[in-house]
């Protein structure tokens, strides 16, 4: 080897490495270097996108060094590792977050300013990776941030969708979808590792044989095989050297071109395998909270789960040369049932590939997995037709039948003759042709722990959705109330407020959110209140400028910013919010001098493309906006803005500017909600039902600082049991009648009385989510909100107390609990060492 790499360190001159250095000089050199050699540009040719790429690459360089040392440390210490399996990771833009977590946001901003460049503008050039639908995918992202910050060895495993969640456009008030080509300008953040590509089988049949030791074995002869190529993105912790990874799998063909088929003149047949393979990681399914029993979806699930488990096993064997202790060194979390096929796949890998016996394999499997449930809606529970399942995964179906056989024998011993219970617990539902595999049952049987995502949700799982499993194994059930990362949702998203907070109480809150309690002492300080208000005002002005630019609506920044942003879904009741807007509109129309609080209603959210009613609600919001915003008799007191293509980046700006947070789902339907936490953290007050985590938010901030409305869960159940009739509420409420009649007569649809008929009919004759039952309570509470907003000082006080009392809802708290009570993992501190020739 050449000797000249060994430069003796004189101990006098220390020059920072361009790829790790943190001084202003090093950062500047790094960015210029990446601009030159990464983008092939200099300042004469460089576009803002080139600068963005150069900044991103400079940050990635800094993280890669730390990643290598993190990986080394985890191996040296024989650390137990958390594997977070999720079909969705809604990460938001990486670059701003990495600057924040490396602690050099301000420094880089200064360096760029010296060259006449504005960091915040450049960061907006990053195409947000939208690899998720909503709360579930975003929760996975917050948890990765906390895992790294808490120095827990962890890997996120998922799918590298070529197209993420669709881009939403509003055309003539309707939602239209465009494909999200997020990779078309390249992705500075990922590194591909083709050497770790992994083979996955699909279809075909199984054969039994007896091996040389006389053991009964099964061989799976597949119809197709596909390769999974891993792409890694570094996940930095805040203020620590730990950098974990998010490993996403891309599907590629294992035989590009079938020469035999080609030679036989079958050109399309020759590329069939390529098309099958590449389809698998092509596109994210855009449904949240409803399942589509599509074959491609099951292919996606099995594809990424099989790649991930093979990857876990490969690394484990390399390190320990045995799988006997797999469960002692790995904790595998199932983010909903989407990856729950992993339970059968791990059994298959241990038994068929690694020749373990059933009992040992089952012991290891049950002790590796834990399952998080995210929904109470029956239509969201995944059940695959046995037919389809057996065609795609014949070996897994056999294994599931075997798991079920053994499981039900135990159940029978415990509940002899209780056939109904046995039928409910079975992994297989129904008889004959339309038998289904119940993925939630598989997840429950194969996991050591089962958790809900808010206290109420966990209780309802135990009493309702998973009751039989709770009675069978109550010790498996545990609550883990969701949390959000304060790094993205306060420090990055609301710099003005973060600076004020840090000025007052220091920066410990960034990694210990309970510290925010120290703000309580300033809640009655007039000067502090004034500054608090000015910050909200400045954030509102930024959002108003955005609304003006995008929607061409001028909003009054002194009006109450009343915000509902989340996926469009009937149970989330955006329609109830609209009924309130029209109620206020009618009041002004009836009495133009009525003293109505000026409000700006802001909506954002995507509807699943096949969800007609949700799309009609978007059309209604935009139709009401068109009438209300242009009516001079309102004198600008009401404005409505639907912000198209709501995503993580947009939401950061919205939470910072919001004053009223709408969390009005029908009680017992929203598992937790996490937007509710982000709003309150940024000082918005909540109007909400006793649903999901709202219950706990209200407990923390105090009932006097929360606007409660609507039925409770027991009341909802009771009303349903005695036969809910929306007409009873409708007939006795003249203000409600006026609202419905105004929509019905075509007032918001150019006289078309049919357009919104489906919405009105569903309210008048069915009203599954009980909007009419909660209407009056909601309106009354909104009236109280208006009065409270006019007591400016007291509103500000409530706002400060909301932020001050959000400590519980940090994802650091949530993840610490998972670590202690589910995963049994400990922090592993990582030391940072400069490069040295010994690295080679
Ligand atoms: O998970 C959400 C819950 O609705 C929300 O209450 C909770 O706070 C959040 C985090 O725990 N669920 C959710 O976002 N679900 C999905 O996005 C989703 C996506 C796909 C499918 C089902 C649900 N699917 O079956 O394809």
Description of the molecule:
This protein folds into 2 domains: 77-92 and 128-134 and 149-171 and 194-482, Rossmann fold, CATH 3.40.50; 486-809, Rossmann fold (3-Layer(aba) Sandwich), CATH 3.40.50.2000. It contains 34 helices and 23 strands. The strands form 5 sheets. Strands 1, 2, 5, 6, 9, 10, 11, 12, 16 and 17 form a 10-stranded mixed sheet that branches. The protein binds ligand NBY. Ligand NBY is lined by residues 133-136, 139, 285, 287-289, 291, 374-375, 380, 382, 453, 482, 670-674, 692.
Q: Give the % helix.
A: 40-55%
Give me the CATH fold name of the largest domain. Rossmann fold
Identify the overall geometry: globular
| Strand-pairing-aware structural class | alpha/beta
User: For this structure, what is the CATH homologous superfamily of the largest domain?
Assistant: Glycogen Phosphorylase B
Number of helices: 34
Ligand identities: ligand NBY
**Intertermini distance:** 11 Å
Can you tell me the CATH class of the largest domain? Alpha Beta
CATH architectural name of the largest domain: 3-Layer(aba) Sandwich
Number of strands: 23
Largest sheet: 10 strands, mixed
- How many domain regions? 2
How much β-strand is present in the residues?
Answer: 5-15%
C-alpha-based Rg, rounded: 28 Å
Mean pLDDT across all amino acids = 96
- Uncertain parts: 1-7
């Amino acid at each position: 080897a050449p000797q000249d790499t060994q430069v003796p360190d004189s101990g006098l001159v220390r020059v920072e490495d361009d790829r790790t250095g943190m001084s202003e000089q090093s950062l500047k050199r790094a960015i210029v270097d990446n601009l030159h050699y990464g983008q092939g540009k200099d300042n004469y040719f460089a576009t803002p996108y080139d600068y963005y790429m150069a900044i991103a690459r400079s940050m990635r360089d800094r993280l890669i060094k730390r990643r290598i040392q993190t990986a080394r440390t985890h191996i040296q210490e024989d650390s137990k590792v958390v594997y977070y399996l999720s079909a969705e990771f809604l990460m938001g833009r990486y670059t701003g977050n990495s600057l924040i977590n490396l602690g050099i946001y301000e420094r880089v901003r200064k360096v760029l300013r010296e060259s006449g460049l504005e960091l915040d503008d450049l960061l907006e050039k990053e195409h947000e990776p939208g690899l998720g639908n909503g709360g579930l995918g975003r929760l996975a992202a917050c948890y990765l941030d906390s895992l790294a910050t808490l120095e827990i060895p962890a890997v996120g495993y998922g799918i590298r969708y070529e197209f993420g969640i669709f881009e939403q456009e509003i055309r003539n008030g309707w939602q239209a979808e465009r494909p999200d080509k997020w990779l078309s300008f390249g992705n500075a953040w990922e590194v591909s590792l083709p050497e770790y590509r992994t083979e996955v089988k699909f279809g075909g049949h199984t054969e039994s044989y007896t091996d040389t030791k006389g053991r009964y074995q099964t061989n799976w002869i597949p119809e197709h095989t596909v390769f999974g190529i891993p792409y890694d993105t570094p996940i930095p912790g805040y203020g620590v050297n730990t950098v974990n990874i998010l490993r996403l799998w891309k599907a590629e063909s294992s035989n590009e071109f079938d020469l035999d088929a080609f030679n036989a003149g079958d050109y399309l047949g020759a590329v069939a395998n390529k098309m099958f393979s590449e389809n698998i990681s092509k596109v994210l399914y855009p449904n949240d909270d409803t399942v589509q029993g599509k074959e491609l979806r099951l292919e996606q699930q099995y594809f990424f789960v099989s790649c991930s488990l093979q990857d876990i096993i490969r690394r484990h064997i390399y390190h320990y040369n045995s799988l006997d202790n797999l469960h002692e060194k790995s904790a595998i979390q199932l983010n909903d049932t989407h990856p729950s096929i992993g339970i059968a796949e791990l059994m298959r890998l241990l038994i068929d590939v690694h020749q373990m016996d059933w009992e040992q394999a089952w012991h290891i499997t049950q002790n590796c997995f834990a399952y998080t449930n995210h929904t109470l809606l029956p239509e969201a529970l995944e059940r695959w037709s046995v037919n389809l399942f057996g065609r795609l995964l014949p070996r897994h179906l056999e294994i599931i039948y075997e798991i079920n056989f053994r499981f039900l024998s135990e159940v029978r011993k415990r509940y002899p003759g209780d056939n109904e219970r046995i039928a409910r617990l079975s992994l297989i539902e129904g008889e004959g042709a339309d038998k289904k595999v119940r993925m939630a049952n598989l997840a429950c049987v194969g996991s050591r722990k089962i958790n809900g995502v808010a206290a109420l949700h966990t209780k309802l799982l135990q009493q309702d959705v998973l009751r039989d499993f709770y009675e069978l194994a109550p010790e498996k059930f545990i609550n883990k109330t969701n949390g959000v990362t304060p790094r993205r949702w306060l420090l990055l998203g609301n710099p003005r407020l973060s600076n004020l907070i840090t000025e007052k109480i220091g920066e410990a809150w960034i990694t210990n959110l309970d510290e925010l309690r120290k703000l309580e002492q300033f809640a009655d300080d007039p000067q502090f209140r004034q500054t608090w208000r000015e910050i909200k005002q400045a954030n509102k002005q930024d959002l108003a400028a955005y609304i003006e630019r995008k929607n061409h609506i001028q909003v009054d920044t002194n009006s109450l910013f009343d915000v509902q942003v989340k996926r469009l879904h009937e149970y989330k009741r955006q329609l109830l919010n609209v009924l309130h807007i029209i109620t206020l509109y009618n009041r002004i129309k009836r009495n133009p001098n009525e003293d109505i609080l000026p409000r700006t209603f802001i909506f954002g959210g995507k509807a699943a493309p096949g969800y007609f009613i949700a799309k009609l609600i978007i059309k209604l919001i935009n139709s009401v906006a068109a009438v209300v915003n242009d009516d001079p008799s309102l004198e600008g007191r009401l404005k409505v803005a639907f912000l198209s293509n709501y995503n993580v980046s947009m939401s950061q700006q919205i939470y910072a500017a919001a004053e009223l947070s709408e969390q009005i789902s029908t009680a017992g339907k929203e598992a937790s909600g996490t937007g509710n936490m982000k709003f309150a953290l940024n000082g918005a007050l909540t109007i909400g039902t006793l649903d999901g985590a709202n219950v706990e938010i209200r407990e923390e901030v105090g009932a006097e600082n929360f606007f409660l409305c609507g039925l409770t869960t027991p009341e909802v159940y009771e009303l349903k049991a005695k036969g809910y009739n929306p007409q009873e509420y409708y007939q006795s409420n003249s203000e409600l009648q006026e609202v419905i009649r105004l929509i019905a007569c075509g007032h918001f649809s150019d006289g078309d009385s049919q357009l919104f008929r489906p919405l009105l009919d569903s309210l008048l004759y069915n009203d599954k989510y009980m909007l009419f039952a909660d209407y009056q309570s909601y309106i009354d509470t909104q009236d109280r909100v208006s009065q409270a907003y006019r007591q400016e000082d007291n509103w500000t006080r409530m706002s400060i107390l909301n932020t001050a009392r959000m400590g519980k809802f940090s994802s650091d708290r949530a993840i610490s609990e998972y670590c202690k009570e589910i995963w049994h993992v400990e922090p592993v501190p990582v030391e940072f060492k400069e490069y040295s020739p010994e690295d080679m």
